[in-house]
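ugh ok fine here u go
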Amino acid sequence: MTKMVKNKKSSKAKTLPVRNTVRAVIYRRTEQGYDFLLLYKVGTKNYWQNPQGGQKRGEGPLEALLRESEEETGIPRSSLELINSTEVKKEYITLRRGTKTKVNLTAYAVKVNGVHQIKLSKEHNNFKWVSYDKARLTMGKYQEQIQVFDEICKELFYQHFMRKSRLE
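structure:
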């Protein structure tokens, strides 16, 4: 869904298209801790990302998040558990298909329940499950993506630590 917003920095009444997007930091628990799913974007040079995409007209962020996650990974929605407390919202300007665009991003941690074969969409041609540190390194130069990933993981790890502390 795209709408227009005025660019406040310009003295001219220039408008930017607005795109509402979602991102899923998909993870699974292992004996070693957490593994995160990264997808390799077709037609890019070394661009690994979390499943993400735009909201369709009339679609809320949670519905879009589950739809995009299933479309891009093949993991059924029934096996995806959204972690509500990890919500991160960001606004930023980016180039999208050669046009400056304002992005309103909503991101969440999404836990995979069970073991599933990953079935990539046409947008991606590879995937890997990696540790937190390896995920940060793999995302490379994409600082916005790393910042969102870090914010989500901070909350996720905090919750894990708090649950573990209460059990001891």
